[in-house]
Sequence to fold (321 residues):
Amino acid sequence: MKLFVLGGGPAGLAAAHAVAQQDGREFVLIERGEALGGLARTAEWPGIGRHDLGPHKIFTLDAALMARVEALLRPDEWLTRVKVSSIFMGGHFLPYPPSPFALIKVFGLATFLKISAGYGWTRACALLGGRGSPQTFEDDLEARVGRGLYEALFKPIALKLWGDPKRLDVKLSQGRVQTPSLTEVLMRLLKLRKSSAFEALTFRYPKGGLQRLWNSIRSRCEGRGRFLLGRTVVGLEVADGRVRALRCRDAQGVESSQEVGPDDFVASTLPLGLLPDLMPQALSPAAARACKEFVVLNDLLLVFLHIDKPSLLRESQVVIV
Fold:
């Protein structure tokens, strides 16, 4: 059995690493860039040093997963930092999860009381079982925090990052937006509790940048699979409901084909909106149109400035050494 992995970001590398640890299985990972890591790779900045593409941190409440990631490097190759989460809103840095004092400072007492009343009503409804199953991002967050807090805090974030919350699937909010219980908020506010049941309070970071993780995975997988870098997937040949071949193009524009056997699998970490163009013969025209309409890919523009200071904000605690 062979696994073809499309995309060499963290998800694709995790899939390749898992396959490499199983006897009798191999992988072929195809990545269009010349380095692994995708949007989490580390780039060299001539004359300045290394920097990551994006403010990625490594944290999870899953102890087994964390141990697996930490095992990629030696213990002395990791940094541990307190995780500070905040949102710049109304001219203030609002900590997350927000305390009552922070909400009053940003929104004012009148809005805070309205938010609190909505939250209390929502929690009472939840205890009484008065709400059905949420279907959208908006339904889910309103059911958890109330209309007032949703409108003030969560809706603006969703609009900025993902689009209209009324059209976003509930799986997105349930997977990406964690909210603490009222008991935890009060206990931590009163300094009676230092741990958290809903979020990691510290994060890990590899000395030298995230690229060290991806390079470690590659070295550990040598001999168990192939990494094809500088190859862009341009087509998936589908027959009888299965992918039969992959077509790729290298940096010089030369196309090649990878045959997918009957016992092989294909795992794609490519943006979902690209798939209709990669395998048009596998989708009806109506399905292809629906995919392009509902799966919207937001452009990402990264601008890097070199500021000659050890730290600019309290949240900027990681220094690549």
Notes: Residues 86-199 form one domain.
